[in-house]
Amino acid sequence: EDDYIALLRDTGSMKVEDLAKKHLNVDLTQPEFWENAIALCVKDVEEFLAL
Questions:
Q1: Which SUPFAM superfamilies match (predicted)?
Q2: pLDDT tens profile 22-34
């Protein structure tokens, strides 16, 4: 709960890239982050299609 409150507190004063780095330990400026995110989506779609 405390971590979530800290994230919310910072949303009004930080850029989204800085928020993600500070609170989620991810770098939104790197292609690897987005490639991994898309890979998760592709996996979910493939699983759905297999059903």
A1: Metalloproteases ('zincins'), catalytic domain (SSF55486)
A2: 999 999 999 999 9
Give long-range contacts, CB 8 A cutoff, 24+ apart: 25-31: none
Domain residue spans of the chain = 1-50
Structure tokens at 43: 């996996």
pTM: 0.69
CA–CA separation, 36 and 43 (whole Å):
11
Which string of b and e fits 23-51 if b means at least 16 CB within 10 Å? beeeeeeeeeeeeeeeeeeeeeeeeeeee
Structure tokens at 14: 């930080």
Amino acid at 24: L
